């Protein structure tokens, strides 16, 4: 919550077609402050889990008798605390991803001497967008839309989905629609149609695709391309190195996250045998590197914000 002594929060008009540098800078600063508050909330939720788990270890139940009511309450509190902690983690990852996305838009606008559309800047916010704002985003690729339409057709057709699949066809169709930023709705005749969704999760899928779907992170500019664009603008090498290093660090953590997802998929499919070709240390190493992704996204956003004034002031020599 912003205290009475704090500056007024940045107000971004929904009808504006471009954002000023000042508004972008203030938004990045507010995202930084808000992230710190969310991280504190997450830490408190984690501490609550630890407290309840310590209480649970001291319960009298040994497995041979029914749980006493007081011990049952502690068990329920553990479930609630764990649920709250995991929800905090997901919320923080989504919020930090938005912050990094805004930072990427800001540095791209600085390099190109232009101003981003406020709708695009706010597209990954936790509240979502209104239906009338969605037209200002990049269009959904026709190939993605066709795949979602095919999944919907299979789910609502006479066969009710793939006869050889155990997956619920409606759930599959909803997931396919959400992955490209669409939602299933009823039309005036009682049929089902696909419409663009302004829900936060659908928007994150639309903006960031597989990067969000598999790793819960934003799709950011390629490091090599970003570094080249900064040098072409005449940005001093210290700034190029700092921004490039922050971007490369995110890419390395993302590579580990993708690797972890793929390894677990192959294990589940029986393509690799855990006891022979997938050592526990391999999993631990990937997991530790992937776990750094959140911190690296934070550093990415802060590094770009710190260097934006110089990037904007730079000109090719």
The major beta sheet can be summarized as: 2 strands, antiparallel
Looking at the structure, what is the overall shape? Answer: globular
Strand proportion: under 5%
Number of helices: 11
What is the number of strand segments? 2
Give the helices and strands as they follow along the chain. Answer: HHHHHEEHHHHHH
Number of discrete domains: 2
What is the subunit arrangement here?
single chain
The Rg value, from CA coordinates, equals 23 Å
Spatial order of the strands in the main sheet? 1-2
- Provide the residue-averaged pLDDT: 87
Low-confidence stretches: 1-5
Helix content: 55-70%
Structural class, from secondary structure content? mainly alpha
Query: What's the end-to-end separation, in Å?
Result: 45 Å
Describe the secondary structure blueprint for this structure.
Elements: H1 21-57, H2 69-112, H3 118-122, H4 142-156, H5 169-179, E1 182-186, E2 192-196, H6 200-215, H7 223-232, H8 237-268, H9 274-277, H10 280-291, H11 293-313
Antiparallel strand pairs: 1-2
Helix pairs in contact: 1-2, 1-11, 2-11, 4-5, 7-8, 8-10, 8-11
Architecture overview:
- The chain is mainly α and 317 residues long.
- A two-stranded antiparallel sheet has the order 1-2.
- The chain has 11 helices and 2 strands.
- Helix content is 65%, strand content 3%.
- It has 2 domains: 21-129 and 198-313, no CATH class; 130-197, no CATH class.
Short note summarizing the structure:
The protein has 2 domains: 21-129 and 198-313, no CATH class; 130-197, no CATH class. Helices cover 65% and strands 3% of the residues.
